[in-house]
Amino acid sequence: MKKFSLLFSLVLLSSTLLFAQNTMNPPKGYDHDTGMMVSMLENLRARIIYSTQELNQEQTDFLLDDKANRIGAMIMHLAATEVYYQAYTFEGRGFNEAEKEKWETALNLGDEARVEFVGKPIQYYLDIWAQVRQKTLETLKEKDDKWFAKLAKGGQTDNHWAWFHVMEHQANHMGQINMLKSRLPE
Q: What confidence tens digit (pLDDT) does each residue in 111-126 have?
């Protein structure tokens, strides 16, 4: 138990030193609530990047078992989920046919993703996610907190909840990625 407490303290301290001052503040140019969400999204993304950016090809493509997902595929999944919520909240729609073709395998994961998302370096996936995030940041900067509190067009959720879900989704997959990293062959 003492070893666990010491390990937990070291992990908490290192994450504190790496990822700011334990405060959330809206970045300049964003309304308060929207900016707070941007701050949280970016914090999680930074932690995922930090934990994956040094993976080699074997680690990026590691498959724990025949039902698991590769780390690269999960990062692609995070990008696909974010693209879906961009369409849903910014444009009031689901994927169009071209977006389905490009993103549906990553969105759904599973057997097709285990075949498709292999053989590319981790930076390939991180770069795609960075491009997706750039659109999110640019568009959210144009939105105000009144928009953030409104129901998404044709939806049953407000825009705040939708982006909270994107953040929550990132946190869940960050845990999966870290679990997979702990199982990587040495």
A: 999 999 999 999 999 9
